[in-house]
Specification:
Blueprint lengths: L1 E2 L4 E4 L2 E3 L2 H14 L9 H14 L5 H20 L9 H7 L3 H14 L4 H17 L11
Antiparallel strand pairs: 1-2, 2-3
Helix pairs in contact: 1-3, 2-5, 3-6, 5-6
Length: 145
């Protein structure tokens, strides 16, 4: 079975494709499901506060919820998948080069979530960066970089 829009296939009951596309699929799916109660996660809140403080920017409730959802999906995938395809689109790699927002996110991410593997930190931060920029988490008035 193929999920064309996300460039994913299902093989033996498992999603197959790049990790970024799989996470994007889950993100889109879970944004469509109304959630009545979410589990409070102190690390997520600390990460968001750290970004807000550093950039003197306050995320609205929807943006904060989007960040929390992405981080939740990412952490769950990290815990359940031993190996995954960490390829990133060239546009994400180019956009993250010499970017103040990306640099600060990377420092905060590794500090807060305790990632020790440099490759994992690089992938996770760029994936979150792509989500923040691509999913309009920052509004058009934000002057961050």
């Amino acid at each position: 079975m193929t999920i064309r829009e996300f460039k994913l296939t299902i093989k033996q009951g498992q999603l197959s494709g790049t990790e970024l596309q799989i996470r994007y699929f889950y993100y889109q799916l879970f944004t469509l499901i109304p959630i009545t109660a979410t589990k409070q996660n102190v690390l997520h809140d600390q990460y968001i506060r750290g970004l807000e403080e550093h950039f003197a920017y306050q995320f609205n409730a929807v943006a904060a919820q989007r960040i929390k959802l992405w981080i939740t999906i990412s952490r769950q995938r990290q815990l359940t998948i031993t190996q995954f395809d960490r390829r990133l689109p060239a546009a994400v790699i180019d956009l993250s080069r010499n970017n103040v927002l990306f640099d600060q996110m990377s420092a905060n991410y590794s500090q807060l979530f305790g990632q020790t593997d440099a490759t994992a930190v690089n992938f996770e931060t760029k994936a979150l960066f792509a989500m923040l920029v691509g999913m309009s988490v920052f509004n058009s008035q934000a002057a961050l970089v």
